[in-house]
Here is the input.
Amino acid sequence: MDAILLQILNGLDKGGAYALIALGLTIIFGTLGVVNFAHGALFMMGAFCAVSIKALFTLEKVVLDPTKLTAWGTPMEIRTPYIESWFGDVGVWMIDYSVPLSILLAIPVMLFIGVAMERGLIRYFYKRPHAEQILVTFGLAIVIQELVKSQFGANPIPQPAPDTAKGMLDFGVMIGFDAGNVVYPAWRLIYFLFSTLVIAGVFAFLQFTTFGMVVRAGMADRETVGLLGIDIDRKFTIVFGLAAVVAGLAGVMYTPILSPDYHMGMDFLVLSFVVVVVGGMGSLGGAVVAGFLLGILQSLASMEEVKQILPGIDQIIIYLIAVVVLLARPRGLMGRKGMMEG
Amino acid sequence: MVAIIKKQSDLVLLLCFAAAVLAGPVILQPFGAGYPDLLQKFAIFGIFAIGFNILFGLTGYLSFGHAAFLGIGSYTAVWTFKLLSMNPLPAVLLATLLGGLFAALIGFISLRRTGIYFSILTLAFAQMSYNLAYSVLTPITNGETGLQLRQADPRVLDVAFGRDYGAVLPSSDLFGIDMTGYPGFYFCAAVLILCFYISMRIFRSPFGMMLRAVKSNQNRMNYTGLNTRPYALAAFVISGMYAGLAGGLLAVTDPLAGAERMQWTASGEVVLMTILGGTGTLLGPVIGAGAIKYFENIFSAFNENILLNTFSFLPETLQHAVVSVASLFVGEGWHLTLGALFMVIVIFLPGGLMEGVRRFGVLFKRKADSDGPTETQPASAE
Amino acid sequence: MANFTKVSRRSLLRGAAAATTALAAPTIFTSKAWAAGYTNEPKGSTVTLGFNVPQTGAYADEGADELRAYQLAVEHINGEGDGGMLNTFSSKALTGAGVNGKKVVFVTGDTQTKSDAARASAKRMIEKDGAVMITGGSSSGVAIAVQGLCQDAGVIFMAGLTHSNDTTGKDKRANGFRHFFNTEMTGAALAPVLKNNFGTERNAYHLTADYTWGWSQEGSIKKYTEQLGWNTAAAVRTPLGAGDFSQYITPVLNSGADTLVLNHYGRDMVNSLTQAVQFGLRDKQVNGKDFAIVVPLYSRLMAQGAGENVKGIFGSTNWHWSLQDEGSKAFVKSFGQKYGFPPSQAAHTTYCQALLYADAAQRAGTFRPSGVGKSLEGFKFDGLGNGPTEYRAEDHQCFKDVLVVKGKENPSSKFDVLEVVEVTPRAQVEYPASLLGGELGPYNDGA
Amino acid sequence: MASILSVQNVNKRFGGLKALDEVNLEIEPGTVHAIIGPNGAGKSTLLNCFVGRLTPDVGTVTFEDHSLIGLAPHEINQLGVSRVFQTPEIFGDLTLLENVMIPYFAKRDGAFSLNAWKPMAGQNDVRGKAEEMLADVGLGEKHAMVANSLSRGDKRRLELAMCLVQQPKLLLLDEPTAGMARADTNNTIDLLKTIASRGITMVVIEHDMHVVFSLADKISVLAQGHVIAEGAPNDIKGDPRVQEAYLGGAEI
Here is the structure.
């Protein structure tokens, strides 16, 4: 039982990431009608916001020590982060908390990137065929990815969680299990909590603001939303920025779980598309439900007990679910008719 | 009258195409692409893209899983080499058939949906094939290493006809002509020309028109008494056979079949080739395939030394500056160039490179002569 | 196709003429320019080597390091720079005047860590650029694929970073040579160290990348640890590139196992190790013992990606820059001075391979594959950083000492993440060539 | 005379809403039969039951001797039923000529034919037929244009040509003049009259009473899923139930 519970927890934080990426993707689909293959790249850029902040915090003062030599004969460098020498303990604390602090940077940066992308490129593609949208955003994703690679290299860059969140939490005790049965990494619980908060935030934003109402109207019927607004263009831009921020935040907070590298966007791209489609194109609730569902099923399928009956099932489970769902429910779990079928 | 002119122009197109393909080694020499392996790849991926275009260009169904058929073709061909004979003909034949068979199976299920749902279904099938081929199906596919020939393979037909390859690892040969190097290219080139001809016939047939009607308006088709599903499925199977054939040829020229041929990025590649060249045009996919393979093989080969030599006419500081900028785009940066190229093409030439050619042609024509308006061709499929 | 409707008869004729030329072309090109010689026999004053490394994809950094090492090797062979390990190498055939009187030049290609792409770029270097030897790579699948190609084409293949047994086992080829060690040696070298540190009563849980190298690694570790008396609790296969391994790690928590063996490499290793530590496995106590994590194949470049998670974790490696023998010091010095940071094991093995090839060709007096091969077979040498080493004739595998390393507790710089725990002597990791099967077959010199 | 299309006891519900309630209808061959009724009366639902887009919950729809229940749209068309839509459904990316050739091929070669090896260039008879048809509806000059570039009225004419080239036994028209200017409407009425004079049976759904009374031989009035009245145009004009259904019925 606790084994299954642990797997469900695994599924929940995996699903949290899936849901956050898929959420932005599906908002963009729904309102702008754009198939954004650069969405994975947005997630990756979010993660690299964390990398940049860490790099900034750990900018080092380099003092050459001529008394010691490196193995290749140059003077040894003694490095101390500026921030540590300036702020002392506060500086140390800032470095320790660099991942959560990155959120502060990621929000404006991702908003800017999203807005720039929409203004500079995406808006010219609203009326173009999906195939062209795919190609241009895919091209953009490659360009972004390669630029990141030329800056940060191809290897993963570790981003540890703050010391206090590094340990394990006895989650089982909180929900009535015996101590020690369901212990789970604190950071992963934080991630799950964080993703639900962001999801709730997005829903609340769309539910309770006039802006959100316009967006929802747009998702329901893109034709009429054009008739509604005076300033539909700007709303679209903000929607895109919002989706970029959501993807970016998912990326920032995921870095302690998965050391970021330039390619991580592509790895999540296909997956997040499957999530969106399984959930139903243009359905916000569908994206969230499908994200968590796929996360959990993927975790359960990886259990040795399951694999003994169905060898290799963990390799294909995601795609198998996609096939089954699409055949049983033509428009995904919560999709509506006519969305993206042309 | 119009019909007759058209027939002639098609013949001219075919002959020019054949001539250009066969003269490939000479034409491409100055561009550094005139060596057998790349020429073979041009031809093979040309076939793959032509086939994909029959599905995507005509019916508009965007498959993200065609690499699966390419992989299946390769595995089939290598197994044919191992079990039956090193002659490429049975291998290519069986690869085509099996590609078609799997396409029929996957197509039958996937075509129950349209639009992006269809794309995701094909993607799902291809990714399942890839993941399984890499791991659980290793006894059949030899997993990561890829399926290879062995000296000890049975090759029953070769044995029956008394062919003995001795102690060396055999390579594929067509009745004594080794299928590596230039003969291999000419074999692929012949198949490419044949495939181009078939695709041309399909484009110019009522069937081809029906496929374009599928893309244009399925609803109208249904109420016109046409069953769209078999049309789409036929196109899917034909393109699957093209993919299987291409996969078979990959194995003929280089008898090794690896699982990564089936990965979604490989499926994406053929989509890019088709769009880059010009979706729905006859020549476009071949050109697109050539462009991408050229980038992959030639741009990736530039390294700092070559760049430094190229710009050695510049003063040294400038030379280093230019090289450091240029090296972003070549060598390990060739992906960047490719991505930027996609964007530029889609933004400025949505019809792909063929639209560029057409625009250029129009410009040229306007300048050269103004002998009245050219007749609008009834078939827009070019 | 409007613009083709107006093609004139003349241009048609031109096309036909071109086609005729093309048909004639194969006889021009395949008239066996190298008849009686061997593939790409160098005729001029230079000899071309092909460096085939991953420049894109997950191993791009490793590939870049390999390329740096190759450039350094070429410099040293041609007599530029400080000479590096040429000064410590036991064979003195190379004098810094190129090889066989020819200056060494090189071409590069991108393997993308895909067999197809690797073979395509190797073919380009052979067919177009006239490379007489291909070397490099950062995975076994690619190494085996390219090795097969080089055998068919008639050039020598000097494998780069490839750790699977198959490269010089089941899939070995006469034209292929490997300096790097393999999973069998890792198992043999690690086992005694594991015994000393963790005892003989351990219950091990394997997580294994689900492809040939992973299985090979899992098999070797199982074999040698079970000989010690360890029990294997479970061996679970994980998909390549799984990213998040939590669903494979949680079952370890309550499995009763007290040791986790991560048969992963590259990004998989970084992720699974990071996450295993996140799940508290490094600090866990099971059956009254401290829980242990083992990473059989370490790569310093990759270990950097796992950050502080590698602290205290055992593994093996082919070479490490902190070694204090003369060869290693010379190499680290010339590499560090040129690039500003120490070389990785990938850089080391590829540098050695380039030197070994050049030296063998010099001693053989030819670049003919069979000639070079014969002079590599059974070649005993020293001074390249791994102590006395032998290229075994039976399987073209180098036999040398194996390093057992541990993640360093107090690194002095970001490159200083591993410390050498033990150098397992060569005798202990040697095995009979027949153990791994396969057939070398005859050399192929090409047509 | 036996009816060409016979609708008996047809019921259709959408959730709690009863769209069609015990509808009976007999269409006689060679007539123009108009179905009128206020918005939401169930006209389009009924039409969709004829062409296979919807399947009635209860009841039968028989065309000649074939039950249409459970048949796919293309099978129904192959029996000889063609349909013109409210918003023209045409092959927008194809030329006018191709638009008309396709239905002819469908009629000649059936619902699916793998004629991939026959060149279009050899299909002069089909081409001739299509050109003739286009000329008939007044689009002969534009045969090489791409259909999307036509005006709305021309698109409707094209769609009509596409149906007529099949020589249907029954032609279903869903508001053939919706959104047209008066002059265009009159042209269409003339065109439809010509078609009717060739003996093609037509069922017309229409709001515009001017059109209905110019064309129809017989009219059925639908309201809330019932047929409330049926008869010759003059009978319908005077029927108080019809006037009531149209709320004041000033238009009649």
